[in-house]
Amino acid sequence: MRTIIEPFRIKSVEPIHFTTREQRDRILRDAHFNPFQIAARDVLIDLLTDSGTSAMSSSQWAGIMLGDESYAGSSSFFRFEEAVKDITGLPLVIPTHQGRAAEKIIFSILGGQGKYFLSNTLFDTTRANIEFSGAEGIDLVCEEGKHPGVPAPFKGNMDTVALRREIERIGAENIPMVIMTITNNSGGGQPVSMENIRTTRNICTEFGIPLFIDACRFAENAWFIKCREEGYAEKSVPEIAREMFSHSDGCTMSAKKDAFANIGGFLAMHDPELALRCRNLLIITEGFPTYGGLAGRDLEAIAIGLYEVMDENYLRYRIRTTEYLTTKLIDAGVPVMQPAGGHAVYLDAAAFLPQIPVDEYPGQALVCELYLEGGIRSVEIGSLMFGKYDLNGKLIPARLELVRLAIPRRVYTQSHIDYVSEVIIEVFRKKEGIKGLHITEEAPMLRHFTARLEPKDNS
Ligand SMILES: Cc1ncc(COP(=O)(O)O)c(C=O)c1O
Fold first, then answer.
1. pLDDT at 95
2. 328 lines ligand 1 (CB under 6 A)
């Protein structure tokens, strides 16, 4: 059959709340044109993030009941540890309450002034934790990854020529780690090929630099490798995942993505000395090493979810969802990142709203318009999220102005996705009338979460 169906039945439902355009207009103003500030109840289709928003399976809910809440040595921890070791091959496993907690720990230890972390593309919390330590992060995505409209199979790849050049320029002694983000979230949810992971590994080995994987979407990346990379079609997803991790010295993970958990994360690695330092810090910030900021029930849900996410029927449906929405938008002439990413569809806001200059945040203007038109919440991944100021207070814009529509796992059905496409196409039809925004208040770091904005005309 042609139709790839949702590989599950729905056992429990959650009503969604409808609002009128007039209500949304008021809500958006009250939220200072920042949908992070909108109450979830006022959102019809919430595509803000795929993080922690998954529907858990009946097995995971059953696991929740089995959670062992012992402070030390809980049996849930051992099940969790076994699952992570089995899937990644990394022997030392440290639970954290989410991905950024793992990042905070590792970069507090390895970061600091004068240090550089090189990556295909650092996610915003990863970059923020690196910079908070005093170190610097450098993104080295491949050339194809810089052009949203140009399709290529592995646009998340590291530019390995640039990697070698940067290592030689900075000096390996100043680079505590190279980080491969798979899939490449900020670069459009685009995958990284096994060949690219292998080449990156070889360069790291040559210079004696550890390679860590930001593994949030490891299963989606493995599926893309299976479908797109020569020599992998016959391999199973667990085999491919194991091979990806075999090229690394460790990983950070947010279990809120490819583990179907609503909360959780971990660090895993080979180096016992580094693991000891991480655990020492973990005890101060997260908790005892066998729970690390999580309840036993969360550890159970993660252990189960890590296997469920590698199911090929699930991954086929998952990747088909973003492809389906992307194709509908391309057919309507909407500028989107091509090909479809794993967990999200990315609109190219710069091409969508060419009349809005980067310092009037076209991505954020589009995010607001999608909410106003159809109650859809999305997120800007552009100059509001990544922009910096130069010494004269002039905006240094982000490389791309994207709007991300992240699809929660196992939550929305095909008709929800059809509705989303209709709203986007309607906004595209009215695009000439959309105006830019300016910031009235912002925090020094991760400003997009709390920034307040106003339409440009009001200034
Ligand atoms: C690639 C990547 N790394 C790290 C994180 C941070 O994970 P968490 O939100 O669990 O702190 C995210 C979250 O979206 C992510 O997408």
1. 98
2. no
